[in-house]
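#onboarding

Welcome to the new folks! Below is a worked example of what a typical request in this channel looks like: someone posts a single protein sequence, and someone else replies with the predicted structure as tokens. Don't worry about understanding the tokens yet, we'll cover that in week two.

Example request:
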Amino acid sequence: MCVLSSKVPDPVRHTSITFVAFLCHDTFVGREKTDPNNRVMMACGIANAMSTMLAVRYKCKDDNAKLLLPNPYEPWNAPTDPKYKEATDKAYRSFKMFENVKEWNFMSMPIMWVFAIFGGDLPYMTQGKMDGIILVSGVTYAVATHMFSSGYVQLPEKRLTGFYLRRRVCEFWLVGSLISLVWFSLGYVGIIKKDGWMQV
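Example response:
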């Protein structure tokens, strides 16, 4: 068992836990079909978002080169001096960006797993084709996350293109996972045979 010290800063500790969960989970209900590439890309997306957030925050310094926003980050204690407003606002946006990337990864990873595991059972689908679909959609998700992260740090409006693209990928995974689960369940109870025809 891996135990992370409570003294480790929260962003680092949470990201470490995410890496462990994403990279070590190789099986699901006994069906070893998951593609590790997407887990790596999504975990790297979180790491990139965290590094972007920390870089922005640590650039916030006063006239004496002292950090304005030290760890642990507390937005409610940010300096109120107007001359630091632009820098502290950017740091807060980067913080919200990082939290958003984590939340979306936690929500989208399970449905991606389910689609990857059971999608190969769909008619006219092979596991090789399924792996290709998951890989391409995973790359699209990673690109969308990068667009979202970099855009949000600049201006809130610039996050929308990446946000909508990422949402489309998640919707694709969600619909695919639901169809795959229904098809697998029908086969499991004997309503549909392995060749895709219904039992008469």
